[in-house]
Amino acid sequence: MTQFHGQNLICVRGEHMVFRGLDFEVNSGDALILVGPNGSGKSSLLRMMAGLLKPYSGKMLWNGEDALDDFDEHGANLHYVGHHDAVKSVLSVAENIRFWAELRGGDAADIGEALDVFDIKHLYDTPGQFLSAGQKRRVNLARVIAAPAPLWLLDEPTTALDKATIKRLEAAIQKHRDAGGMVVLSTHADVDTPGAKVLNLSDFVATPTVEEMMAL
To answer: Is the Cβ–Cβ distance between 92 and 77 less than 8 Å?
Structure first.
């Protein structure tokens, strides 16, 4: 069983302590939903999990080992889908997905599945610059299918998606979990993730001590 967990994490952005004393645990087959008001640190935590933001203090462990000791190895274990869609405007939909698949060891079958899962096969030859916001989001999400990784980190993945595509995303998440994958997502919308854990980041917001403020 794969396990990913954080211990006593503190996040500082600029001179502002975003959250402190935060613990999380995600095991094979789990989904963890991050909730909390704007500014509570949902995106920061996801970036921290992805290794894109260093914790002020605390540890993140992958199967008991420090996840951030080897950034390349940790990165190979996950997909991070943030607010900005990583779609190159001069490449077609197929070329964008193929780029990610080849980068992460996917193959033609994975690319075909990704197109089907998010219903974008009809956009196969369409350059990224001509896609709508919702279409770009579907292409961005498709790369998690085209290049398999055990951990999906999804920051507001339903942004710009219609109800039918949200259902496709929910099905993809469930299939990933059924195969032993792990999903962490932040969302203000309802995403059907049966049995998911919920982590409310507002529970970890605290005023720093004088000593902590002086150390910032």
So the answer is: no
**pLDDT tens digits, 96-124:** 999 988 888 777 788 899 999 999 999 99
Cα end-to-end span (Å), the chain: 38
Residue 83 has pLDDT above 90, yes or no: no
Please, what sign has the CA dihedral across residues 188, 192, 193, 196? positive
Round to whole Å and give the CA distance between 183 and 79: 10
Pairing of strands 31-35, 65-66: unpaired
Listed in sequence order, the residues at least 6 apart from 169 whose beta carbon sits closer than 8 Å to its beta carbon are: 118, 141, 157, 158, 161, 191
Check: pTM over 0.70? Answer yes or no: yes
pLDDT tens digits along 48-69: 999 999 999 999 999 999 998 9
What is the per-residue pLDDT for 210?
Answer: 47
| Residue 178 neighbours by CB under 8 Å, 6+ apart | 29
* Chain centroid to CA 13: 20
HSE-CB at 187 with a 13 A cutoff on CA atoms is 24
Which pair of structure tokens corresponds to residue 113? 């599945």
Q: Is 166 helix (H, G, I), strand (E, B) or coil?
A: helix
